[in-house]
Amino acid sequence: MPRTSLVLGGNRGIGLAVARHLADRGDRVAVSYRGGEPPAGFFAVRCDVTEPEQLKSAFAEVNAELGPVEVLVVNAGITRDRPLFTMSQEDFDEVLRTNLSSAFLACKLATRGMLRRGWGRIVLVSSTVAMAGAVGQTNYAASKAGQIGFARSLAREVAGRGITVNAVAPGFTDTDMVAAMPEDRRNELLAQVPVGRMADPAEVAAAVGFLTSEDAGYITGAVLPVDGGAGMGH
Ligand code: NDP
User: Fold this and answer.
1) Res 234 pLDDT > 80
2) Mean per-residue pLDDT for 185-206?
């Protein structure tokens, strides 16, 4: 059955790949974008996920155009990497606001309708860093680990109501986020990936596609690694 899906941060990288995957399987897909040009081919809503009023408007616009959100992908994310002793309060807070606090309101807005209809799928795009930690990423790792605790708690709250809440934990994925890293750091990370290459965003999208499918109704509170084996043992 075609569903209404909303991908937060769906204008590039992993989010855009997820939007394409969900559209290819027949969903009515909305994406949020923060600025610039919206991606072609989708119903796009402008929204900075750190602004609660913008998130509320985004949900209202999607609801009016495509119907209530049945599949929510919480994907918008940033890094502000620095060793803790040089990290500013703003670097910490901005990463938490973008990656974690946005999940709180987005899931709250989405679950209202899902509970009414007795069906819903939520996926948070976390990271292997949530489990392993990473130098310079105390803020990012805290936000990504927070997403997992959040997802599992919400999963328990709504498990009996036809709604699943899961996380994917991508490893090193070929997007602008990784392109912004120094080359020696990228090579160091690549050396830790058993598969020996970065993930294509489409490979993360396929995992999100599965977790948001009808077939995945008995999977909730899970963290699915998409990391070329880098996280084995966590
Ligand atoms: P990109 O930097 O390519 O894309 C990030 C996306 O998030 C963009 O769409 C961006 O919008 C959006 N975004 C950031 N801040 C905000 C905001 N305040 N409001 C609205 N949208 C915002 O990153 P990726 O595609 O690589 O990352 C997507 C997700 O995957 C993130 O949560 C990231 O942490 C996670 N991840 C990525 C990994 C990787 O190796 N690439 C590994 C593990 C997890 P805009 O274009 O306006 O900036």
Assistant:
1) no
2) 94
Rounded Cα distance, 27 and 5, in Å: 6
| Ligand 1 near 9 CB (within 6 A) | yes
Query: Could you say which of 59, 92, 119, 140 is catalytic?
Result: 140
Ligand 1 pocket member 127 (CB < 6 A): yes
- The SS3 call for residue 130 is helix
Structural domains in the chain, CATH included, are 4-225 (3.40.50.720)
ipTM value of the model?
0.99
* pLDDT of the residue at 182: 86
Active site residue 33: no
Q: What is the pLDDT of residues 65-106, one digit of tens each?
A: 999 999 999 999 999 999 999 999 999 999 999 999 999 999
Say if residues 40 and 63 touch (Cβ distance below 8 Å).
Answer: no
Pocket test for ligand 1, best of 94, 126, 150, 173 (most atoms within 8 A of CB): 173
202 lines ligand 1 (CB under 6 A): no
Nearest by Cα to 201 from 9, 21, 71, 48: 21
Please tell me which residue, 1 or 163, carries the higher pLDDT value.
163
Tens digit of pLDDT for each residue in 211-233? 999 999 999 999 999 999 999 97
- Gap between the Cα atoms of 12 and 205, Å rounded: 12
Q: And the tokens for 135?
A: 């130098």
Contact assessment for residue 58 and residue 33, using Cβ atoms and an 8 Å cutoff: no
- If one residue of 78, 95, 203 were mutated to test the ligand 1 pocket, choosing by the most ligand atoms within 8 A of its CB, it would be 78
Query: Ligand 1 within 6 A of 225 CB?
Result: no
